Amino acid sequence: MFQNNDSVNWAILSDTMVRPLVSVVIPTYNNQSMIAVCLESIYKQTYDNIEIIVVDGGSTDRTVNICNRYEVTVLETDLGRAAARRRGAKQSNGTWLFHVDSDMELSEGVIEECVTAAQQYDALIVPEVNTGKTYWARCTDVDKHISRYNCVGNLRFLSRELYFEVDGHNPELLNREDREFHELVKQTGASIGHTSETITHHLDGMGLLDILRKRLRYIRSLKNFEERSRVHKEKFNREKEVDILGVLLSELRKRPEFMPGFLLLTGVTAVIKRALLLYYRIK
After folding, report:
1. pLDDT above 70 coverage of the chain, percent
2. How far apart are CA 63 and CA 189, in angstroms?
3. How distant, in Å, are the alpha carbons of 13, 84, 183, 190, 254 from that of 178?
4. pLDDT tens, 1-39?
5. What domains does the chain contain, in order, with CATH numbers?
6. What is the C-alpha separation between 69 and 123, in angstroms, rounded?
7. H/E run at residue 15
8. Cβ contact 146:247 at 8 Å
9. Averaged pLDDT, 137-166
10. Do residues 162 and 188 make contact, with C-beta atoms less than 8 angstroms apart?
11. What is the Cα gyration radius of the chain?
12. 57 closest CA partner among 84, 82, 36
């Protein structure tokens, strides 16, 4: 039988030994303005057993040079974001995978919370907070608030084993690969949790036209999604009920200045989506 002080030392040693490796996979392309912020936020994590894998899509700016200043693995692919996520996962050594984007900043305790919560859940949604220098960028956080309040979104943290059980992200998709992946994991019967720690998504100086162009690219990819998704459409469209009105009323009280912008973005996006889907059907 160990004495008390020996027991404490052994417990500390055991805790250190069993802390599983977490592989953070970051696809990027020409993001020299934010990649260092993303990497620094990972280095500041309270959890200390982490490897970082950056998968670059052929950047022509200083992105790769900045990454090389850090202790990270840099891979290259020109096959798109889904292929980049998959490539990074294949090269990973961790028990757990954490998928983030290069314009995101992690709160200091998020990986620690994910590893702890993984004792209860198979995969985790990490809520996002949108921010930026412009009014329009900040308006998009109303959408994110709806997701945070209702604990919905796309999962980012899961075991490497589970990732490859569903064959990872679909490289055939031009967009929405994270949504399809979430649905594939859900259909395995995996339990999906939701962290209290967050990720900040930096939209920087995106203006109204920038956001609408980005949404237009997303909407245009829906046809590709319908043709190439591995998820049956009827199953994919079954979403949990969410409280939208309650969140909007809360936003109206707390951040009334962003409501006109949010409503304009939502309305224009809906019109563009309806018009394009009608065009696809006629065509």
Report:
1. 89
2. 39
3. 37, 12, 9, 16, 31
4. 333 344 434 344 444 457 899 999 999 999 999 999 999
5. 19-282 (3.90.550.10)
6. 31
7. helix 4-18
8. yes
9. 94
10. yes
11. 20
12. 84
